Amino acid sequence: MAKPRVITVLSQKGGAGKSTLTMQLAGGLARSGRKVAIIDLDPQETALRWAQSAVEGFPAQVSRLNVPPEGLHAFVKQVARSADMVLLDCPPSIEHAATLAALQEADVALVPVVPSPADLWSTKGVERLILQVQASRKGLKAALVPNRVVRTNLAWDVLEVMRDFTLPVLGAALSQRNAFAQSAVIGGTVYQLGRAGAEAAREVDKLVMEVLKLTGEKV
Ligand SMILES: Nc1ncnc2c1ncn2[C@@H]1O[C@H](COP(=O)(O)OP(=O)(O)OP(=O)(O)O)[C@@H](O)[C@H]1O
Ligand SMILES: [Mg+2]
């Protein structure tokens, strides 16, 4: 069996979409037949509560890191025994010890970025941190994922600015959609919303393809 891949979702700014990205990506990867596990590193326990409120059961196993961040490596190893993919949902700070530990574990780091000036500024700090880690660990792949994209000129201008980052920007952006917020309410993913989630599901499908390419997995 191939070695399980670890995907760390981090951002400096609160509300950028880390938990949304983690949960939807988990849903998409599960649909591709992979066994997915999520480790919730955020004291807010968003991912854990999300899965616990699942009416139909969540398609990934979610656990809360119940040891100090120094114990993350062993915790990931344990969880990875029964998973093909392990997703780490980080707290909203890159100074948080858990975020740094999660980055050290990552095969792929994903940074959701809302195309607004404040988000872009705070993303510069995340990028610096990732580039530092990459300097000593060449195998770490990383990308920015535009989130809450609104198809207005302003948003497109900001996406242009995002292209100034050193890290690649995924073509698979998530738009601002009710379906993403609605998924959290039902404790599920956009795949469970039928027609109301169809366009959002297409975006997540594309995201899954791009993330699998980053992990080096067969698509
Ligand atoms: N693409 C989107 N479309 C609509 N709503 C979204 C989208 N992405 C995120 N949201 C909403 O924005 C809020 C914040 O999202 P989320 O909890 O995923 O961010 P976060 O980065 O995990 O936050 P925190 O830093 O607090 O952990 C939630 O209410 C979520 O439903
Ligand atoms: Mg969160």
Structure description:
By secondary structure, the protein is an alpha/beta fold. The protein has a single domain (5-215), classed as Rossmann fold. 44% of the residues lie in helices and 14% in strands. The chain contains 8 helices and 6 strands. It has a 6-stranded parallel β-sheet with strand order 3-2-4-1-5-6, sandwiched between helices. Helix 1 crosses helix 8. The protein is globular, with a radius of gyration of 16 Å. Residues 11, 14-20, 42, 44, 46, 92, 147-148, 174, 176-177, 180-181, 184 line the site of adenosine-5'-triphosphate.
Structure in a nutshell:
This protein is an alpha/beta fold.
Quick one: overall form?
globular
Strand content: 5-15%
Within the CATH hierarchy, at the fold level, what is the topology?
Answer: Rossmann fold
Number of strands: 6
Spans of at least 5 consecutive residues whose pLDDT stays below 50 are: none
For the biggest sheet, the summary is: 6 strands, parallel
How far apart, in Å, are the first and last alpha carbons? 16 Å
Strand order of the largest sheet: 3-2-4-1-5-6
Average of the residue pLDDT scores: 93
Whole-angstrom Rg = 16 Å
Order of helices and strands: EHEHEHEHEHEHHH
Ligand catalogue: adenosine-5'-triphosphate, magnesium ion
Number of helix segments?
Answer: 8
Task: Find the CATH superfamily.
Answer: P-loop containing nucleotide triphosphate hydrolases
- Determine the structural class based on helices, strands and strand pairing: alpha/beta
Helix content: 40-55%
Reading off the top of the CATH hierarchy, the class is best stated as Alpha Beta
Number of domains: 1
Overall CATH architecture: 3-Layer(aba) Sandwich
